[in-house]
Prior knowledge:
Blueprint: H1 9-34, H2 40-65, H3 79-106, H4 109-116, H5 119-130, H6 137-154, H7 162-189, H8 194-212, H9 214-218, H10 227-255, H11 257-261, H12 267-279, H13 285-306, H14 309-312
Helix pairs in contact: 1-10, 1-12, 2-3, 2-8, 2-10, 3-7, 3-8, 4-7, 5-7, 6-13, 7-10, 8-10
Amino acid sequence: MSQPPALSPASHLDAFLLLMAIIWGTNYAIVKSAFREIDPQAFNALRLVLASAVMGLASRAAGRLRLHEDFHTSARVTRDDWLRLIVLGLVGHCVYQYLFVGGLARTSVANGALIISLTPVVITFVSAARGKEPVGFLHWAGTLLSLAGIYLVVGRGAHVSGTSVRGDLMLMAAVGCWAFYTIGARPLMTRHSPVGVTALTMILGTIVYVPAVSSHLARLPWREISPAAWLKLIYSSIFALCVAYTIWYAAVRRIGSARTAVYSNLLPIIAMVTAYVWLHEPIGRTKLMGAAAVLCGVALTRSASARPAGVTGVRQS
């Protein structure tokens, strides 16, 4: 009896990116519900502290055990590396987190998902403009097809009101921060591991973030917080920050920023399925068409990155 074919490295990476999308897709509703008991900025400060501790310990353990290069590299952190790490920590873990959580607290999940879905377009555009990561026609087609599908999934659930405008603007600024962080960290990935870079930038960002929101922590009613809210905080910290961030940057290192970013288009679909399973929200024909468009767009973009550079004109990374 013949053995089943082994999964290729690309198949493994796709599986991990799907896991990342599931974690982040479910994280929206989990974080939003936790805000009923915990102030948004206090919630974020606590999860950043926990995530920083876990990532720091994981990075040290990986160094001692000399694990795979995705977890540890022996390259020395230079002065230029430290400067880049400090900037990325401030932008990607301090400013971004403040804007993301603050924006999500002020607007609907539908608005948030629709705005955050602009991330692949922004990253693709910046990557192409900088010329560091050439983007071909198939990648653009897949990105735009996915974006159109996302609008069919959540666009009609989005709304603009006086109370949501500020939140929407904060999320738009957060998209810019995340694009900067993703593209800016890639040069570090040529010499350092995703776990190490994530750990250092997270710790540096948290050092600035926690004092900045200390007043929110001081007003927190610790004894009134339910065990369920603490579990949500732990899930969001360990999985949405530690696990998903590591997968994100392992993929950035292997296939580039623009191609990795396309997988974030799956988040609204995950959120839709989660709402159907847990909340029994109906899924109509339009949403199914949108989901199909997103999946086709992701597949188109992934196939473009898998083809030889001579065929697509896109440099393999």
